[in-house]
Write a structure and sequence with these properties.
Number of strands: 3
Shape: globular
Helix content: 40-55%
Strand order of the largest sheet: 1-3-2
Order of helices and strands: EHEHEH
Strand content: 25-35%
Largest sheet: 3 strands, antiparallel
Length: about 70
């Protein structure tokens, strides 16, 4: 089933949540799915990561915002 949402980015939990808040502040809806389940993260010591998705029609705006905010981190 196509939800109309497209993959935008994957990042550590803290950065992903921060960026999702920025997206919401710019009126860009978003949702996320964990890459690792909490149980696996606890047992294996893996830091949880999130995949962020935005509506297809907002992908370009979201990518520009992502690049603007995180360009110094790459």
């Amino acid at each position: 089933m196509d939800t109309g949402y497209k993959f935008l980015a994957e990042n550590d939990l803290m950065w992903a949540k921060m960026f999702m808040q920025i997206l919401e502040n710019h009126h860009i809806p978003c949702t996320a799915l964990p890459v690792y389940g909490a149980g696996l993260a606890i047992r294996a010591g893996i830091q949880e990561r999130l995949k962020i998705f935005v509506p297809a029609e907002k992908t370009t705006d979201a990518k520009e915002l992502l690049e603007e905010i995180f360009s110094d981190c790459v």
